[in-house]
Amino acid sequence: MTKTTKDQLSQLHHAGAPLSGAWLSYARAEDRARWVELKNQSAPEAFAKGVEASQAVEGDILTKLTQAFKGPQAILTARSELAKKLQANILSYIANGQLHGFGYELPRQVASAPVAIPKVAWTGQCDWVNGTLSYQGLQFVGVRLTTNRKRNEILERGHVDLTPPRAVGRPSVAKDILSAIHALHEAGEIDVTASQYSHICKLRGWLELHRPDLDPPPNAISDETFRKQFAPFFKTLKENTKQ
Hints:
Layout: H1 6-15, E1 17-18, H2 19-25, H3 29-40, H4 43-54, H5 61-95, E2 99-105, E3 115-117, E4 125-127, E5 132-135, E6 138-147, H6 148-155, H7 174-186, H8 200-210, H9 223-242
Antiparallel strand pairs: 1-6, 2-3, 2-6, 4-5, 5-6
Helix pairs in contact: 1-6, 3-5, 4-5, 7-8, 7-9
């Protein structure tokens, strides 16, 4: 296992396209051409032509206005639908490992370095206009997307393996799970009225965000392994809540 340095994270972030425009930067040529075509169509001009055409339409003012708005509404709808399609494409590229997100986690300080954004965070709320992403209380700003090719280029430059020698056998993840449990408890994410198993997804999500280099990876840890660590804590918390 290798460790990504702060310098490499800065390079990866700098090499990426800002989230606010990435959906167009990484779009296919034909989709970009279609977007330019739609942007060059003037909604106000279409409205003016619609008003002129509505004069020849029989009916009340509402009928005439409906006719006048048909042109600009068609343009705006086409733009919105294309933008949504291209943004959905970006999310699929991230899920498939073709693009990688990097940004700053709030609260950001002057000396803060960019961080790699885990895939699971992209199931959260993505603000395409402001280039931000939020997931389970975490917020990332200044988000950029870097291609897999560029990422590999940067990570292959002077990468040093910092993994200490490990004893033979499968490593224990107990401490990491306990860290996740206490973090969720402090964040008020543990509900004693819910089932134990309903919290396992939350625990996995926390580990994917905060322990991305965990071995084995969070999605490979069995539910039973989580239960063994969570059950005693949950039982004690539930008993103390009743008092």
